[in-house]
Amino acid sequence: MADSTSYQENIHQHEKNADYIEIHSLAKQVEDMDTKEKYEKEVDKDKDIDNDKDVDDNEKEVNENVKNISTTEKNDKTNQEVERIDGFEVNCIPLYGVEKTADQEASQNCKTGMRVMWNTEVNVGDPAILGNGYQVDNAIEVFYNTLQYILYVTGFPETEDRSAMPRLAINKEKVVVGVLSPAEDCMALLLECGNQVPDSMHLILKESWVLKKPHKEKPGQFELFILKAITCHKGGVTYLDEFNPPRKCTYLINYFFGCGEPAWGNEMEKNLDIPISSPIPLCNQVDDKVWMRYKMSRCGVAHPETLAFRLAPQRFVPSIDTIRVFEVDRCMKRKKSQTGNSMQNDSRGNNSNMQNTSNGPVESHPTGTFTAKHIENGGVVCTHAAMELEIRNFLNKPSILNRKIVVKPAGPSHYGSIGVTFHDPGSIKSVIDAVEDLLDKIIDGESILVETFVEPINPRPVRGISDNIKRSKGDSGLTCRVRATACKDFDGKPVCSIITCGVASKHAPVHGDNTVPQTLDTTLQTFGISDPSVRRNIEQDVRKRTEDTLQTIIDEEKKMTAEQRGGIGGYTEIIGIDFFLTEKNGHIFPVAVEVNSHDCTVNCHMLECLADMVHQCTILNGRVLSSVYQPSEKISGVCSDKSSQYERRDCVMPKVEEIFGQCVRPWVRTMLTRSQDYLLQDKMILVIGAGGYSNKFILPSALEMGVKVSHIFGGYSNKFIWPSALEMGVKVSHIYGGYSNKFIWPSALEMGVKVSHIYGGYSNKFIWPSALEMGVKVSHIYGGYSKKFIWPSALEMGVKVVLVESNPMHFAGNLVHRFICIDIENHKQDHSNASIIVETLGEENISVDGCLTFWEDCGPLAALVSELLQLKGNTYKAAYMAKMKSSTQAFLRGNPRSFPHLPFMFMFACKSACITCEADIPKAIKCVSFPALLKLDYASCAVGTKMVKCEDDVFNQYGYITNTLRINNDYHGIGLGFSNSMVLMEHLQGTDHTIDVVMFEMKLVAALITDISPTNLPSYMETSAMMPSALNVDKQAQMVSAAFQCLSEIGLSNGVFNVQMKMTHTGPKLIDINARTGSLYIRDWVKRLYHIDLMKCALMVSCGVRPYIRLLPPSEYIMGVMLIPSLHKHVILDNVIRMVLEGMQSRGEVIFTMLESEEDLLHQCDKTDYEQPYANIAVRAPTIDEARKKAHAVCKKLGIETSSYKVSEFIKLF
Q1: Residues 344-356, mean pLDDT to the nearest whole number
Q2: Residue 1014 vs residues 409, 765, 1062: alpha-carbon distances, Å
Q3: Which of 373, 377, 651, 1171 is the one with CA 20 to 30 A from 690?
């Protein structure tokens, strides 16, 4: 309420300011007119002076007087400024300055070199929250107008100024990417990020638009808050916004590091706790040509043979066959004039390189003598003559003798081919003179390179081209510069996103400013390379070398400390490599000449602008101009083994509307993913119920994300634990629970178990006297296995997990942040258990950011706890309805309401009836025709599912199932803690499918379909599955819509859900809703195919953050077969078969997922009525037919296919 009041007051103050400014402006205009008239009269009296000149001079003087008056008034107002405070209190000072005069606007237009076709009366001054008032900043206005010009000519709307009403809300993903840059250097980034996650990209043009504050919980680190920015949205829509409260930045990109731009970003990025792209130390490293050439040579990337002289290098580079490295030391001399040397300022903000303005001796460039030390032979001191000798020896090498030579400076301040000279073969003296000349121009940390010239490819004759576009034959005096951009994608793999080329004379330096960008394919055709396969091979070679170079940088940075990288979140995530194509023995290959750090996308965006422009106003026979080679044959979308190591389909075949931003698309995915990973770090998340072995991934993933987890365990059903604990010598601690745990202490005493940290309420009062009498001490006994995947994953994410579980022996106990044990097995007591959990959290002073469960039976309990803690989640009513099949179906059948734009809900429901006792059977039979299915009403799998063909079958099966499956001890995890009531459902004809759905605030975020093969009757256990679905696209749309509608209709709005449906001839029908993340193999398959982590999505939703989903189409199929204990134990227990399996795994031929532990497998009976799979074995292939063949071959080799388990029959229907 306070924020709302402050917000309204701020708006009111802005209105008052506007009135004040209008009155003040009118008064000042009158004063200006009087002053101007006075000076005009004086000019008329002077007849000897040129009238026009006098008027101009006097007008200038008048303007200066007016400006001085205005400045005095502004200074008076500025003196009233208040200090910044932690609460970011708004200081109500007039926001806008005086209205710009026509002369000022004309002057500004001249500076920008463009006609103004947009509104310039916008507030680009300091944020109102600082209380500085409006101060004119010509540089910022030029930045702003440049952005408007680009938006205007590319067809995007101009920026709308919304700064008068500071914004309170933030995007649902809570991603705040800040880029410190002029717009022309990052347009592709702005447009692409705005399209992927609207309102996440913030263009910051001025230092006062951000605020750096010490981190409250991390000493020595800082947080960055954005007070004002230009925000980017879909379709190129932009807004000038202010934020109150300020937005916390989650990812930073800094282009304001000097080199003709402001350098205030250098200080801003220091010691931040957020992810940063290419901080200063990493930029210096990547821009170091000598170091990069050494690293490229290590990964097989060709570069010119080089002789390097380095001045005070920041990193060690040894000499190798293709690089000779010397270190040059300056001599000390009296101060020498260095004015006019524009290259001397360190572009990365190194203050140690600033000019010395004192009268004392300074470090000067050597003019006659200097020392040079050969690094490889450390300690060998060379004279000036020795340096000349090294140059002569280098130039006289047989491989260099008759080749053209290039001499160039290398360092951050040398860009755009500054200082580069070419020298004919044998011109030794001119090379030496060029080196000595550059010694006067380089600064510490820079180098001089003497290298071989890369001879361009020879043009071929152009023959047999029957195309409407005339191609010009390449000239022998031309060369082409190839710029390949590589980004680190969200999964850490390098991707060559775009390749551009420029053609120019080979007799002068070639760079981005003296060439017009075009595609590599067009360039190769210009040089007469008409064979598509040859062009494709060249393009793949460039891609591979580019990706290998970025991978080398990534690997190198993994070895560096946070301080060396320039921050805890600092990494190189985009580079641009310049190649020249050369030829040897008829083979064309690229030679890399330099690597550029993250400010390398300007020319890439130029090509995108050219492509967009031609598509806006020209039709080229339906072609799509792509920055990568497009073969004439159809591309299947599956990566070839001969192609680059890592290829994203959305970077290969862009649609016309996707051209903008293609060069940075993988990078944007990375910054959005890293932002959400940052948001998850150190989150405290309450997980209700640990589950079993199939959830083992949770903890490592949570640790990776920085999430904290805690557990609650207990209950009479765990009485079996203590004998096992005694045998294992296990110590147990942190036991929480009620009266149902009274059996523990006598048992513990008899076995000599030590117990400590016993928690509970009044019902546990009996414990303490008994414990004292017995001297019991317990510490950490863990068990359970079916959800083991959860915990490693949670640990990897850095999540702090607070786990609530009934099993004190659960293995996850030592993997969580807090481990609490409460008996939650009896779900009829969910309301009281929820209260106990909340009370325990309060007693332990544990504050959680989210609450969820990965265990089906704990869905309603987790919903209750979320409601009590007021966390993002689902209502108890919705979670309970999802758990009870009969209730779900009845609600959908009886609810006539439907989505106005989607099919009616009753279309997806099937006939069913609940059976709580035998007396309900006759009534249920009237509702459902035979044959029908009899199921446990609260089950989450096929356990207890039987086909019934008549009334007698219903009575017989009902009696048998309810007598064998009564309580949780009879079979864990199938809902017996609620009831063993059953439901009779119609038997549907069709194909089975599961849909894993991600939802946030009742909005569909992602939906992924898995095809399920027919079951092995009479069992209804799953036998095999395939992902992605082979259904037609319209059928998939029906399935996704049905799943989303069913979830929304019963009230499930937040989380990750697993929906089972059957596709019939009349459309999809709902079978079951599991109100939790899909387990078994689902998470692994989804990560492999779609690069989406369902567990991470669930954690993010629980914390109130909408997951960012990367829309990448799958490039292969995964087909898997289930293994059951009664038939397939030998795959694990037989040493020979297991060695074969492990060999197949190591070669990547199969994906093997254990669903139960080996220990559990050893103790299982050979045959049970309610058998469940213990493992899944899967194969990957580009087509369904190939996947089917591979799966069948693997199953035959491992002995999985038997006469009673015919895999070939299961998978033939895919």
Answers
A1: 35
A2: 69, 54, 11
A3: 1171
